# Entry
Amino acid sequence: MFVERKVKDFINIDPLQTGGKLTEDARRMLVEWGDGYSVCDFCMGDLHGIKNPPIADFIKDLAEFLGCDVARVTHGAREGKFMIMHSLAKKDGIVVVDSNAHYSTFVSAERAGLNVVEVENSGYPEYKVIEERYEDAIVEARRKGDVVLAVLTYPDGNYGNLPDVKAVAEICHDKGVPLLLNCAYSIGRMEIKAEKLGVDFVVGSGHKSMASAGPIGVVGMFEDYAKVVLRKSERFKNKEVELLGCSVRGVPLMTLMASFDHVKERVKRWNEEVEKARWFVREFESLGFELLGEKPHNHDLLHFKTDKIYEISKKVKKGGYFLYHELKKRNIHGIKPGRTKSIKLSTYLVPKDDLRKVVQAFEEILDKYG
# Structure
């Protein structure tokens, strides 16, 4: 059954989608490599060793791109987090996590049998990670058990905050704790080099930030930890246990590879994206909305407190869904249906003229229901 995506030509400001739009090369890959296990035609036992198509070369380039020794592809950033946690887990082990972390970080820890100690953020309105609190959290956690890992979200998917990674890494390493950086909304948008940042692991999302069809993720690490995380099966000598022998294959991988050169180039223009996001913040706040998250903002993911929209929703027939329908009339997609108290959006790769139309749309809606 064919299902048409009726919003494909709309202005798309969905934070989950702006960084995952396919390149033209990737779109061609959808057809060329769409048949089932097509990439496995020449597999000799390990996916990352396949030379035709050139997956082995891509994996080496990916490790260099991530600034680490070893890279792998996974079925998503969450699978990367889980495989690292699971391989490091101990009985009564603990992972220290920032409170802005994605729910999948907590679920990964739970699945791996780990307890979680949270590093609380600064609260309203910026919700910033207080880097120094990692030290207190590790000390507190060690009263309860063995801290096997710390996680920092960069940026978080709720507010788009970018904490000081190097400061957290220094604290963690002084305490003898490895640090995992969750870069689902940064790898593929901005430069992320694990070695420069001083982190032990990085995970990213191909379908959120690397112009891939997905679902697909990337994970990078250094040799010392690769011996543990990428350990081989005793029975099947070329199969890595945490990847269940093979990771993602087919269209997700081939579209990621097809977009890779484009992605490597676009990270060089990250400063332009930040300036555009800040421009949008100024325009949107002029309508009476309030940005939640750090200021000045350093990422395209934006979260606004929209009291004026919420007040309208309490009076109109469609309630909280009125905003979704008003935006749909104006060919704008990406604001979650039913949300009015606050809204999340992304300006990444959205042309400035289109963003002007978004601002104008909200201005019209406020005037209409004023």
About this structure: The chain has a mean pLDDT of 95.
